[in-house]
Structures are given as structure tokens and as C-alpha cells.
Design brief:
The protein has helices spanning about 5-10, 80-90, and strands at about 15-25, 45-50, 55-60, 90-100, 110-115, 120, 130-140, 145-150, 155-165. It is mainly β and about 170 residues long. It has an eight-stranded antiparallel beta barrel with strand order 1-2-3-4-5-7-8-9.
Length: about 170
């Protein structure tokens, strides 16, 4: 199935992560398990969709305990592997081709996005896998809702993204 050009155009661009939540299938909220979420309670990140069919995703925890701010590339002295491991543990970045499929009328979601197979990922076990998300674009194309299914916990994860307006001048 070929994705409708209007959906590709609406999705294309950069998106900033606004918030996340998780709801069990029975409708109750997944409790905060003592900060066990790899990306923390208030993650930050960007998604960039290119109209040629590629996506780049970068997300990380924002809590100071998950991000040793004093670490610098190429300055390994007086740092430990544990500090670098902590930084790596609380981020997720990948790039991949993406495909989208529009749902038929009557569904509250616009369709399904598939990121993958992942060509590279900070979590190597995810490489060559495909991440599936249901999506909805709302508020005149300014908000993107992605929903993911967690089969282990029987819960839906929801990520809200805001479209980043271009910083470049408009050329005619």
C-alpha cells in the first residue's frame, strides 16, 4: 500500500517530545515504578521524518541523576566507565526507514507507522527490528500522538510530539 502524500507531508519535519504516559489495557495508569523508566519521568527528544522515508529519533532522560553533565567527549581522565554507562543507559537514538499506512474511516487514529528495520541504534538488540506505532496528527498538524503497545505489561504507551517550525527563512 502506498502512503497518501498528504500524510507524508504532514508528518515530514522535526518534532519535539512534549510528554509521555502509559495506560494498562483496563484503563488504569501505569504507576511510576521508582523511576525505572529508562528515559525517566520527563524525557526530552526529537523525531525527524524526511519525506524520502527515513526517520531519526533521539530521546533521553532529563533527571540530573541520569545525566552526568560534566562528561565531555575525548576527556576520559577522571571519569569512570560507570558514569559513561549511566549516560548510555538513559538514552535511545536510532535511524531507520519508515513506512506508514492509513487506517480506514471510523478509526480515531490516522494510521500506523513502522520505524524499521532499524539500521543503527544505541541499543544494539533493537537493530534490524521494526518499531510499530499508531499515529494521529491533530491541531492543524502541530501535534503528533504516537501510541505503542507493550505486550509484556499489557499497556499502551502514549507519546505526544510538537511540530518544530522551521528556523530557516522561507525562500520563494
Amino acid at each position: 500500500m502506498v502512503a497518501p502524500l498528504a500524510l507524508i507531508a504532514a508528518l515530514s519535519g522535526a518534532w519535539s517530545l512534549l510528554n509521555t504516559s502509559a495506560i494498562y489495557i483496563n484503563g488504569t495508569q501505569v504507576p511510576d515504578l521508582g523511576g525505572s523508566n529508562v528515559l525517566g519521568k520527563k524525557p526530552a527528544g526529537y523525531l525527524i521524518y524526511h519525506p524520502t522515508g527515513f526517520v531519526s529519533a533521539n530521546m533521553h532522560a532529563t533527571e540530573p541523576g541520569s545525566r552526568p553533565y560534566y562528561l565531555q567527549l575525548e576527556q576520559w581522565e577522571n571519569t569512570t566507565d560507570a558514569e559513561w554507562a549511566l549516560l548510555g543507559k538513559h538514552n535511545l537514538a536510532y535511524y531507520a526507514p519508515y513506512t506508514l499506512e492509513e487506517f480506514s474511516n471510523g478509526n480515531e487514529e490516522h494510521g500506523q507507522l513502522k520505524h524499521g528495520p532499524l539500521l543503527s541504534c544505541t541499543m544494539p538488540s533493537l537493530e534490524n527490528t521494526t518499531l510499530v506505532r499508531n499515529f494521529t496528527i491533530v491541531n492543524e498538524g502541530k501535534l503528533l500522538r504516537l501510541r505503542t503497545w507493550d505486550s509484556v505489561n499489557q499497556a499502551w504507551g502514549t507519546l505526544w510530539w510538537g511540530k518544530i517550525e522551521t528556523l530557516l527563512p522561507k525562500y520563494v
